[in-house]
């Protein structure tokens, strides 16, 4: 069965939507325990366990971690889908398990996941703590890295809905980065290897999301975990889960993250990754930030007794509710927004909207006119 179809029929259905906490994944890790070894690698600031799941029997070691930022849960869902595939077996699963040993930290920041915040309970961004190692979660990841000595690392994240690919009106549903190893951003061998794998992933997912794969800026920051591990000589891939039309729950995007993970692992399993295919990485367009969640064109405002027409860009703020995330709209920008796009777009010329003073603009009342 083709992987995308397999996912439609067999994905792990006990994790959905955006609010994923430790309570959601602990039963699943125990459910798949027969697939490998489950241990506690460390504890968070608030003393929640940080689990490490080991599976496979091959010589190629892959370390991956998800929810380093607590409010970035799409890759955690995809990792649970990966475990479901490996547990079910089959040709692809056997190839991966025979040639790879996979180490998974499915939730590095369980406190941030509970609070639905980017940072940990001390207010620290763990992806800016690779040099200082000031937090227990950072120390846990580094200890696992130093103990496992992986051949490849997958750094799994989510990105905001603002990202598009190049200058196109296409959302960056997936984005990738081969992090720099130095200020000069030299193309070192570890970078070439991660670039080669990313190029293979891109080629595979383009048949599902053509033009919706982006490439992150590679400015070097030794405080970032990916840059740190890559500079230590281990090929590291940054995965970023982004927006798919109408999929604010990111339960469609998770399928493409799952597909990317399996594609990468199968390629590593079946090939000697030597970096020779790295050039195709640069065919992926760089990310840009040209999207609003809602874009209203030519809305009339009263200014000094005259009517001025301005575009209104609206974004959603994600706020945790009762076991789910509420998407609360707010006006992010007004003015001439030509060159920007909206996941939903409306033209105020099509309505008889009464001009108002910009300072009296209320998002909720505005949206009633259009949605």
Automatic annotation (TrEMBL):
Belongs to the peptidase M14 family. This is Peptidase M14. Transmembrane segments: none annotated. It holds the Pfam family Peptidase_M14. Keywords: Hydrolase, Metalloprotease, Protease, Zinc. GO terms for cellular component: extracellular space. Its cofactor is Zn(2+). GO terms for biological process: proteolysis. Residues 11-268 form the Peptidase M14 domain. GO terms for molecular function: metallocarboxypeptidase activity; zinc ion binding. It comes from the Bacteria. The keyword Cell division does not apply.
């Amino acid at each position: 069965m083709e992987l995308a179809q397999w996912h439609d029929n067999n994905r792990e259905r006990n994790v959905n939507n955006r609010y994923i906490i430790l309570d959601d994944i602990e039963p699943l890790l125990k459910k798949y325990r027969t697939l490998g070894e489950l241990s506690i690698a460390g504890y968070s600031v608030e003393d929640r366990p940080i689990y490490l799941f080991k599976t496979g029997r091959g010589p190629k070691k892959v370390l991956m971690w998800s929810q380093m930022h607590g409010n970035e849960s799409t890759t955690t869902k995809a990792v649970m889908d990966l475990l479901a595939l490996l547990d079910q077996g089959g040709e692809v699963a056997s190839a991966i398990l025979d040639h790879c040993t996979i180490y998974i930290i499915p939730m590095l920041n369980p406190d941030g996941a509970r609070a639905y915040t980017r940072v940990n309970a001390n207010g620290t961004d763990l992806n800016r703590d690779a040099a200082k190692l000031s937090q227990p979660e950072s120390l846990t990841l580094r200890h696992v890295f130093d103990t496992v000595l992986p051949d490849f690392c997958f750094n799994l994240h989510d990105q905001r809905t603002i990202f598009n690919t190049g200058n196109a009106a296409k959302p960056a549903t997936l984005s990738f980065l081969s992090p720099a190893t130095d200020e000069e951003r030299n193309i070192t061998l570890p970078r070439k290897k991660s670039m080669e794998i990313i190029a293979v992933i891109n080629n595979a997912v383009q048949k599902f999301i053509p033009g919706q794969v982006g490439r992150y800026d590679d400015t070097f920051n030794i405080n970032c975990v990916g840059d740190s591990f890559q500079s230590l000589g281990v090929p590291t891939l940054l995965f970023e889960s982004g927006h798919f039309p109408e999929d604010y729950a990111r339960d469609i995007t998770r399928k493409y993250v799952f597909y990317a993970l399996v594609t990468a692992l199968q390629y590593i399993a079946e090939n000697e990754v030597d970096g020779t295919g790295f050039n195709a990485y640069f065919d992926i367009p760089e990310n840009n930030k040209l999207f609003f969640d809602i874009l209203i064109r030519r809305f009339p405002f009263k200014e000094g007794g005259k009517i001025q027409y301005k575009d209104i860009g609206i974004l959603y703020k994600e706020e945790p509710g009762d076991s789910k995330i509420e998407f609360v709209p707010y006006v992010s920008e007004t003015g001439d927004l030509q060159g920007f796009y909206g996941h939903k777009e409306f033209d105020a010329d099509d309505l008889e909207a009464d001009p108002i003073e910009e300072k009296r603009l209320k998002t909720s009342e505005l949206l009633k006119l259009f949605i």
